[in-house]
């Protein structure tokens, strides 16, 4: 019998792909064969980033399935992508599994799927394949999802996940409080997306029960109350590429390495690092206020400005801003964030506090502005 063959499928978003690729690299180090599944759209973005092929090598076989979205305009429509995850991708994944198992290669030994797309685990169970669920976020998120029936029963949320009133809740006396207006699935102004995320969350409660292992990109030291409350969650984090002195992989944009040279020239603990993940969109006013705030603070800063970070304009900077901050400010499209956060010049992290950013900052002892 050959090496175990694991089919890995993330939720189609950068923050889910990066930790699962890192876990895949760990499995390769232990002799596993990995087939990694992305949507065609995300696959092209990842593979077009400079240097990614050298980081992945030949050990991880990257394959694609369709999400059924034909145009970029459709992809931007509220709820379109999250609906595709529910309606289109399951059939495509099942076809892929049948194709792999019907070929001359080694059959799939285990499906390792993002916890938020539990239908992949259901497909694996139907085909008699072993199953592992992976949560790329905090264990507290899993505890929250598992408590959805209780939240509905207690009148905290409606059947569609909408909070019935703004309040603060605790899932256990030891866990931190949560604001109901900031629950995982709540998307003000985007009800189609909220409906789809809530439906995925509800379905994952059932799907995760068929998993033989429930893995989480966290550690007991960060969340003892959550791991105590749901004891079958296995902490395997933090999954950081810096642990292996190799760059992370899965970024949708080519990383700008020149900013590391700029950081080398700054005093220790002097630079404000500013980054808001792969989804955050600012309207022009918000973007300009942030820019002016960075200018007024009169400190060196490194600001990650994605090509699509602003809504409705390609040149959203305040007039003359780039010239005024040229001697102490750097604006870049994408960076190797783990390398930035481990740099001695970085003083603090202005962040949207996505889980990957949180554990990367905490692991390097960096103070946060949230």
Automatic annotation (TrEMBL):
Gene3D superfamilies: Glycogen Phosphorylase B (3.40.50.2000). One of its GO terms (molecular function) is UDP-glucosyltransferase activity. Pfam families: UDPGT (PF00201). CDD domains: GT1_Gtf-like (cd03784). Belongs to the UDP-glycosyltransferase family. Keywords: Transferase. This is UDP-glycosyltransferase 83A1-like. The keyword Nucleotide-binding does not apply. SUPFAM superfamilies: UDP-Glycosyltransferase/glycogen phosphorylase. InterPro entries: UDP_glucos_trans.
């Amino acid at each position: 019998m050959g090496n175990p063959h694991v089919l890995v499928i993330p939720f189609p978003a950068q923050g889910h792909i990066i930790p699962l690729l890192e876990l895949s690299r760990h499995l390769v180090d232990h002799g596993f064969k990995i087939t990694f599944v992305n949507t065609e759209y995300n696959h092209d973005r990842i593979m077009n980033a400079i240097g990614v092929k050298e980081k992945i090598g030949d050990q991880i076989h990257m394959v694609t399935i369709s999400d059924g979205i034909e145009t970029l305009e459709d992809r931007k429509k509220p709820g379109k992508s999250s609906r595709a995850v529910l309606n289109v991708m399951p059939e495509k994944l099942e076809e892929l599994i049948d194709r792999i198992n019907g070929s001359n290669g080694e059959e799939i030994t285990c499906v390792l799927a993002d916890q938020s797309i539990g239908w992949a685990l259901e497909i694996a169970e139907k085909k008699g394949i072993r199953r592992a669920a992976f949560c790329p976020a905090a264990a507290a998120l899993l505890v929250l999802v598992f408590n959805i029936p209780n939240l509905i029963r207690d009148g905290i949320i409606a059947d569609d996940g909408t909070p019935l009133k703004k309040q603060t809740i605790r899932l256990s006396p030891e866990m931190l409080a949560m604001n109901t207006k900031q629950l995982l699935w709540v998307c003000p102004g985007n009800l189609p997306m909220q409906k789809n995320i809530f439906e995925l969350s509800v379905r994952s409660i059932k799907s995760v029960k068929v998993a033989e292992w429930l893995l989480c990109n966290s550690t007991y030291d960060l969340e003892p109350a959550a791991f105590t409350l749901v004891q079958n969650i296995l902490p395997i984090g933090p999954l950081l590429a810096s642990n292996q002195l190799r760059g992370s992989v899965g970024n949708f944009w080519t990383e700008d390495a020149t900013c590391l040279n700029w950081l080398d020239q700054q005093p220790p603990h002097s630079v404000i690092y500013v980054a808001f993940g792969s989804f955050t969109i600012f309207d022009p006013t918000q973007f300009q206020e942030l820019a002016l705030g960075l200018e007024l603070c009169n400190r060196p800063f490194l600001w990650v400005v994605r090509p699509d970070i602003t809504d409705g304009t390609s040149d959203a900077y305040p007039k003359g801003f780039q010239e005024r901050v040229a001697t102490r400010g750097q604006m870049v499209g994408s960076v190797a964030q783990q390398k930035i956060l481990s740099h001695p010049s970085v003083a603090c992290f202005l962040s949207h506090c996505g889980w990957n950013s949180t554990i990367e900052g905490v692991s390097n002892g960096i103070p946060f502005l949230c």
